[in-house]
Amino acid sequence: MASRLPVHRARRGHSGRVSEPVTAAPASARPPGTVLAHAEAAYLGLALGDALGATVEFMTPREIVHHYGVHREIVGGGWLRLKPGQITDDTGMSLALGEAILAKGGNVVPLACAEAFDAWMRSKPIDIGNTVRRNLIRFRNSGNPVAEYSDHDAGNGAAMRVLPVALVTLGRSEAQVRAACRAQARVTHHNALSDAACEFLVLTVQDFITGASLGQVFRQRISPLVQQHPEFAFDERPRRENPSGWIVETVQAVLQALVELDGFEHCLVDVVNRGGDADTTGAIAGMLAGALYGREALPARWLQALDPDIHERCRAQARALAVPD
Ligand SMILES: [Mg+2]
């Protein structure tokens, strides 16, 4: 799949990467300080992608070209009329979730997650997803923090906020990690495709943070995801432009950008210029690319533009979650 944007340097095809050694990087491949730096980069990457993408949320690629040429600066605006560097619900719900996990000593407790999301909703955030709102109101009325299963609740609202779970469960067994994913996700999204995406994203972030290459992740996470849930197939498919809030289209756009493009900035510029749910594709791509490429890859001008309070909260929470006392 070739990029249509002139700024991008096309990555070699997948067939080249799958010839790399099959052995996964051990969890301890990196010293703790380097793991922490990649954890911080994942959190800052999430916020940067959110702030960058929000400007062009709900625009088509053609509209973005008309207004911006290639959108590559954190300038605010968009349908939410954001200040430059302001973030949206993707980062806001992640921070709320992380605080709830820390308050429970590193455990992901559905009731604590639901209460934290409800408090966040009461703070009158600048935006909120329909499924999130509906199931938090249901929680207020019933007190049950777990949503009923629904084939329709396959939006990206649980996946956009998974990062605190990835950081706090570093080093735990895969079964424990998957259970923690479901504990936070099903507060608002109880759906098989949402669960699959959340667990895939968390395990992938952990692999990158602990030193796995993109080729290794392609074999041990991406290929199994597509085998188990063919809806997510993205390779050798048309460029996923104008991705909706459906988790399948979100993951397809993010994976096409991550796999096809080298470097943090190129990946994020590619994914947000697809338009659609660009703050969430930006946030998820930023989380993955930050975890993969690390702190040095984050553009200084984007970090300068990011809301300073959000910048500090993301860094502090990454440290607290990834390095428990
Ligand atoms: Mg948002």
TrEMBL record:
<feature type="region of interest" description="Disordered">
    <location>
        <begin position="1"/>
        <end position="31"/>
    </location>
</feature>
<dbReference type="InterPro" id="IPR013479">
    <property type="entry name" value="ADP-ribosyl_diN_reduct_hydro"/>
</dbReference>
<protein>
    <submittedName>
        <fullName>ADP-ribosyl-[dinitrogen reductase] hydrolase</fullName>
        <ecNumber>3.2.2.24</ecNumber>
    </submittedName>
</protein>
<dbReference type="GO" id="GO:0047407">
    <property type="term" value="F:ADP-ribosyl-[dinitrogen reductase] hydrolase activity"/>
</dbReference>
<keyword id="KW-0326">Glycosidase</keyword>
<dbReference type="InterPro" id="IPR050792">
    <property type="entry name" value="ADP-ribosylglycohydrolase"/>
</dbReference>
<keyword id="KW-0378">Hydrolase</keyword>
<dbReference type="InterPro" id="IPR005502">
    <property type="entry name" value="Ribosyl_crysJ1"/>
</dbReference>
<feature type="compositionally biased region" description="Basic residues">
    <location>
        <begin position="1"/>
        <end position="15"/>
    </location>
</feature>
<dbReference type="InterPro" id="IPR036705">
    <property type="entry name" value="Ribosyl_crysJ1_sf"/>
</dbReference>
<dbReference type="Pfam" id="PF03747">
    <property type="entry name" value="ADP_ribosyl_GH"/>
</dbReference>
